[in-house]
Specification:
Blueprint: H1 5-9, E1 12-13, H2 17-30, H3 38-48, H4 53-59, H5 68-76, H6 80-88, H7 92-102, H8 110-117, H9 120-138, H10 142-170, E2 176-179, E3 182-185, E4 201-206, E5 213-216, E6 223-228, H11 248-253, H12 255-263, E7 268-269, H13 270-277, H14 281-293, E8 297-302, E9 305-310, H15 312-321
Parallel strand pairs: 1-4, 4-6
Antiparallel strand pairs: 2-3, 5-6, 7-9, 8-9
Helix pairs in contact: 2-5, 2-9, 4-8, 5-6, 6-9, 7-8, 8-9, 13-14
Length: 324
């Protein structure tokens, strides 16, 4: 991808609930859910029995491509209800063409063929099925997922300020490198040259894309990269907030501050910490101020929220003070 000054100026990050739906479905279709997400799969397995997974696997198979109409909806809006409204409005001809494209030379499975034969009702049924999947598999974890995504964006912003655009882009994924004005992506099955032509570049961190990288460039929208975000390993493995109450770290820092550090493997706001720990927001805010002055917590603003996360020093203390 060849970039110009206008493309750098229009480069931006976006968080997409539908992207997480698509990438998690891709993993399920492959039947090789990556190790960081196996506990997520176990927690959602029962709920998925009430979802038409045969249809979703037929629309999002583990192939070389993802249906273009899904990517269009994932990048055109930021709220899941608006994204699924766009899916429901997909013209029947486009739905059929995109489904056939993802299966390439293979025969399209019966659930997808039946969907395409329904015309406009097929797109609405797909959107309803995606909504049920979202409600069972992603929405219960969305607060934690969003915090990890926001943490990744904050980290990339640090790379930008510390090393410039080259450092930012090169840090996104091992397949990405920057050579002069060219963003090079190592995808052995694809050979494409594209000029961004001033449209910019959309960068979308994803929990379920790990460890992969998805490139999207359609003529009617800016190019986008869906890349595996940092911190995926901390997402599903957090312990109880009270796990440190009686250990050495609690004796050193105080039980409240130790519990806060234990919660901050995933970024959280003061309100979220107060709710999770059963403490008042002013009390949590006071402890956070002490931890931040001590170099154990870092913070940054994301929209109207201020998020906190423990520093590497604090993570080392938590690990050293944990059970065993």
């Amino acid at each position: 991808m060849r970039m110009g000054v206008a493309d750098v100026a229009r480069m931006r990050f976006a968080l997409s609930p539908l992207a997480e739906v698509i990438e998690s479905l891709y993993q399920l279709s492959s039947r090789r859910v990556s190790s960081p997400h196996r506990s997520w799969l176990e927690s959602t397995r029962d709920g998925l029995r009430g979802v038409d997974m045969a249809l979703l696997r037929a629309v999002v198979p583990a192939g070389a491509y993802v249906a273009d109409f899904l990517f269009a909806a994932a990048t055109d809006a930021s709220a899941i209800d608006e994204q699924l409204r766009l899916v429901a409005e997909t013209p029947p001809a486009r739905l059929r063409a995109d489904v056939e494209a993802v299966w390439e030379r293979e025969s399209v499975p019966a659930p997808a063929r039946e969907l395409c034969a329904e015309g406009t009702a097929g797109a609405r049924r797909l959107a309803d099925t995606l909504w049920r999947y979202w409600s069972v598999a992603i929405e219960p974890h969305w607060r934690e997922i969003r915090a990890v995504l926001e943490d990744d964006v904050a980290y990339r912003a640090g790379r930008l300020t510390g090393g410039g655009v080259d450092a930012l882009l090169s840090s996104l994924h091992p397949e990405i490198s920057v050579r002069d004005e060219v963003l090079q992506i190592d995808k052995p099955r694809h050979s494409v040259e594209h000029d961004l032509a001033g449209d910019g570049l959309l960068l979308m961190p994803s929990v379920f894309a790990w460890p992969g990288l998805v490139v999207d460039k359609a003529p009617d929208r800016p190019a986008s990269l869906v890349y595996a975000c940092r911190g995926v390993g901390t997402l599903w493995g957090g312990g109880s907030p009270n796990a440190l109450d009686d250990d050495a770290l609690g004796a050193l820092l105080g039980h409240s501050r130790a519990a806060i550090l234990n919660c901050l493997a995933v970024p959280r706001s003061t309100t979220e910490l107060a709710r999770e720990l059963g403490q008042s927001a002013p009390s949590v805010s006071f402890h956070l101020s002490v931890l931040r002055r001590s170099g154990l917590v870092t913070s940054w603003r994301s929209g109207r929220r201020v998020l906190y996360r423990r520093t590497p020093l604090a993570s080392g203390l938590v690990a050293a003070g944990g059970p065993g």
